[in-house]
Amino acid sequence: MAGARHGTGPPLTRARPTGLLGGSFNPAHGGHRTISLNAIDALGLDELWWLVSPGNPLKSAKGMAPLPARLASAQRMARRAPIRATAIEAEFGTRYTVDTLRKLVRRYPNRRFIWIMGADNLVQLPRWRDWRDIARLMPIAVVARPGYNGRTHAAQAMGWLRRFVRPADQKLHWTNWRPPALVFLRFSPDVRSATAIRQANPRWFERYAGRAMRDPLTHSRLRDRERKGTA
Ligand SMILES: Nc1ncnc2c1ncn2[C@@H]1O[C@H](COP(=O)(O)OP(=O)(O)OP(=O)(O)O)[C@@H](O)[C@H]1O
Ligand SMILES: O=C(O)c1ccc[n+]([C@@H]2O[C@H](COP(=O)([O-])O)[C@@H](O)[C@H]2O)c1
């Protein structure tokens, strides 16, 4: 029973199912919010954390708005939802996802994590540092995205990942899966993208100009909230 004590051992608490969505969020948009809410529902998540990247190692810094502006846009887009926009990677000093996830797994033993990404990210996954180790750390959920779905199953990464694919109708049981494990999620197609927003308004970040990371919801604050039981 959750929270019960058995004998003299430590209290047993159910690990909290937590989704992780890493991204540039340049800026955050309704597509991020919609896929996150759908994933929370489909995977039975307690929370979904957005990891606003200090800088995608594969993307040029050119055209990348400052982190405080991207974080502020993410915080705004995450309002009134069990989504936490975080700057955890800036605090950890990590750029590569594998390093971030290793730290998160170590520092949050009372949570079970699942890495969530759009189908476009699956296509480029073999270019990520130690990408197979990412899959060995936690299950992965790939969200269908217009323009990429046909390419998803043919993606180079699938040459190795294919054997770990789980049936989509088992997705609510992901916390029992031993990684590597991969599941495909298909919600209503969402065409929104940050590229389209930047094309329409290249100076979108000006509304957040001068914003310091006043409330970055960093690891230390999350950890404090967990200790106080208010997370
Ligand atoms: N409309 C969408 N449908 C499915 N996945 C999405 C969608 N928008 C973003 N994602 C996923 O969210 C994560 C973060 O995305 P990101 O911040 O790069 O936004 P983006 O719209 O893909 O940006 P850009 O157009 O600049 O590449 C990635 O895993 C991406 O695949
Ligand atoms: O670890 C890597 O090598 C790596 C390479 C490219 C992208 N990523 C991560 O992929 C996530 C999505 O990035 P983006 O820019 O497509 O939103 C974000 O968390 C990045 O840090 C990670």
Automatic annotation (TrEMBL):
Region of interest: Disordered: 1-25
Keyword check for Ligase: no
Record Gene3D superfamilies: HUPs
Sequence ranges assigned to domain Cytidyltransferase-like in this UniProt record: 20-199
Pfam family, one: CTP_transf_like
UniProt keyword terms in alphabetical order: ATP-binding, NAD, Nucleotide-binding, Nucleotidyltransferase, Pyridine nucleotide biosynthesis, Transferase
Metabolic or biological pathway, per its Swiss-Prot or TrEMBL entry: Cofactor biosynthesis; NAD(+) biosynthesis; deamido-NAD(+) from nicotinate D-ribonucleotide: step 1/1
Catalytic activity: nicotinate beta-D-ribonucleotide + ATP + H(+) = deamido-NAD(+) + diphosphate
InterPro entries for the chain: Cyt_trans-like, NadD/NMNAT, Rossmann-like_a/b/a_fold
CDD domains, per database record: NMNAT
Enzyme Commission no: 2.7.7.18
One term of GO molecular function: nicotinate-nucleotide adenylyltransferase activity
Class of enzymatic activity (EC top level): transferase
Job of this protein: Catalyzes the reversible adenylation of nicotinate mononucleotide (NaMN) to nicotinic acid adenine dinucleotide (NaAD).
Family indicated by similarity: Belongs to the NadD family.
Alphabetized NCBIfam families for the sequence: PRK00071.2-2
Name the record gives this protein: Probable nicotinate-nucleotide adenylyltransferase
The species this protein was found in: Sphingopyxis jiangsuensis
Origin organism lineage: Bacteria, Pseudomonadati, Pseudomonadota, Alphaproteobacteria, Sphingomonadales
